Amino acid sequence: MHNKRIKFAHCVRPTRNGEAPLLAAYARRWVPMKTSAYGLAVALILAGCVTGSSRGLEYRTDRGTNSAEIVAALDKAEALWNTAGITSYSMHIRRGGVFGGSVFTATYRAGSCRAKHLKDIGLPSSFACEENSIPQLLTEVRKEIMTGQSDVSLSLDPELGYIRWFFIEPHTNLTDQGWGVEVSDFRALR
After folding, report:
1. How do the domains of the chain map onto residue ranges?
2. CB 3.0-4.6 Å disulfide test: which of 69, 97, 114, 151 passes with 179?
3. Alpha helix locations (H) across 4-54?
4. What average pLDDT is seen over the chain?
5. Cα–Cα dist 152/143, whole Å
């Protein structure tokens, strides 16, 4: 594959003379694939500059330490969620553990739920639509924190209070028991 040649000029917006400002040297000539690692690094850096952070407000508790802070954050998130009054919404939700999981798109409308399986990553995980609503996820995280037997990492949306992601690592005699949930493409529906 190192004989193939690719052009990196299409990765950035051209200036008025048609050259890509940061990759002008690459735009003028073809670059061998073996140096494409540098081009890929530049493209990833440029992509990182364009997209902002969407991680939300992040919290962590280690086996019960800082649990008051994270419980207060959950209380605030739940209040934001209840104040927003959102009963109809859709989201992509990835649920799984250290060995993989599954991605679903879920739509919640006035007490009913519909989910569609999108893909598996590694080992698939099961999905019960009713157990993955935003209020249920908040309750699930709260329950894990209150046991004091798990490390919990959590990110909350600062505007609506929904969970963006959480990861729970139980303290057991078994390894690789961690699991989590990631919510993306959240949309409130009318």
Report:
1. 5-50, 57-188
2. 97
3. 24-28, 36-50
4. 75
5. 11
